[in-house]
Amino acid sequence: MPRLFRTALCGLTAILSAALLLAPANAAEKLRVGKAVPFAWTFTPLDVGMQTGIFAKHGLEIDASAFGGDARMQQALTADSIDVGIGSGPGMAFMAKGVPAKAVAAMAGIPRNMAVMADYNKPIRTVDDLRGKKLGVTTVGSLTDWIGKRINVKKGWTTNGITVVPIGGMQPARAAVKTGQLDGYIGALESGYELEENKEWRVITSATPFVEDFITHVFFVREEVIAKRPDAVRAYLRAWMETIAFMKANKSKTVEITAKVVNISPSVASRAYDEQIAIFSTDGMFDPKAVEVLKESFIEMGLLKEKPDDKVMFTTQFVPVK
User: Fold this and answer.
1) What are the pLDDT digits (tens) for 289-312?
2) CB hemisphere CA count around 282 (13 angstroms)
3) Could you point out which of 10, 48, 68, 249 has its C-alpha 20 to 30 Å from the C-alpha of 168?
4) Fold held by 114-210
5) What count of other Cβ atoms lies within 10 Å of the Cβ of residue 144?
6) Which CATH code is given to the segment(s) 29-111+214-313?
């Protein structure tokens, strides 16, 4: 081989090698993921998976956001502002109202992560003391909305029971309780513990005594994404499940990350971990009994007049997650 040709070939090889080094081997696929609320510990696996590189490992770049309740998140799904929504089981009623999305996997079972909280300085100590009180919830049709009404049903309070008031997130709720517009709030258990430590709110009860079979949280995905990017949906679910496995095996790191994400003390984050780590599904399957309770909740809340078909609310093409 002539020396001039060898020199040119070596030069071309060097240029191509440099170009390959500069170009990404596999460009990450971007997914816009929105949480129904920013302050729930059960939504922090998204942050844990991002900070530990698990989503990136599965070829995903997550653009994370949060809203002031399920209804606002559903609006974002409708407006094509997000691809994936992390929301409540009762939020599946919005699918029957025309939101162009489907639940693709169950995220969490019975709502051991939810609680009823009341003003620390008011004489409210038991569930019975809640009768006739006004409690804030995130939005109409949300999990928090349903829990308030579920307590009324279970206690037989057909009149003068709990009145639920859509107020949004923690900041407006705290202001409303402080000024006496509300007696309390239904929200994330860990938020109640944090405010109880500061003697601002008191945790009256968790939601679990009033719920047997249930799907607390699910993943919603826009129908267009399901149709055109099914592999991205599968990658997201696999990454989430791997994140849950990581969290179960690494409590200290999980507490460190999640305490900062939801702005709670490490002691409260540790308590939330112990009480809630078992809530997460490991396969994403939709339990038939829990689905039936959800359908009943739609009627109880006045969201729907009749129970919708399963196919209206969710798809099983991505479960079980493997």
Assistant:
1) 999 999 998 888 788 999 999 999
2) 6
3) 48
4) D-Maltodextrin-Binding Protein; domain 2 (3.40.190)
5) 31
6) 3.40.190.10
